[in-house]
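Structure in, sequence out. Go:
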């Protein structure tokens, strides 16, 4: 990730962060506020890149396209998505994401997973 990409600040201009990181695949921004109940990540996929089919067993996820275009596949359904598109991914539902010819940057939001704790049972 480029050192010029603002990261982990709130408020954040996700469109500007996505534009600055268009050559950097992966997570460009993440929410890290203490005491939060949600996790949020701005993810960038370069043109034609794909996150393969997987299932999230425990968490519903909202996916919001910030820049670019792509396809979100849920089970047997494929949705073409562009800036402003919102897709709800239910827990237990198989999903995959593929970037279009100009790449794809999208925000995911879901309930925060509790951190690992070491202690006595």
């Amino acid at each position: 990730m480029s050192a010029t990409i603002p990261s982990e600040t709130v408020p954040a201009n996700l469109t500007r962060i996505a534009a600055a990181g268009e050559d950097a695949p992966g997570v460009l921004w993440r929410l890290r506020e203490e005491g939060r109940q949600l996790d949020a990540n701005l993810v960038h996929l370069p043109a034609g890149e794909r996150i393969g089919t997987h299932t999230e067993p425990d968490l519903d996820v909202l996916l919001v396209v910030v820049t670019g275009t792509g396809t979100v596949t849920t089970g047997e359904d494929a949705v073409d998505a562009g800036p402003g598109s919102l897709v709800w991914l239910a827990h237990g539902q198989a999903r995959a994401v593929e970037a279009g010819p100009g790449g794809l940057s999208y925000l995911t939001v879901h309930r925060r997973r509790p951190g690992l704790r070491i202690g006595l049972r």
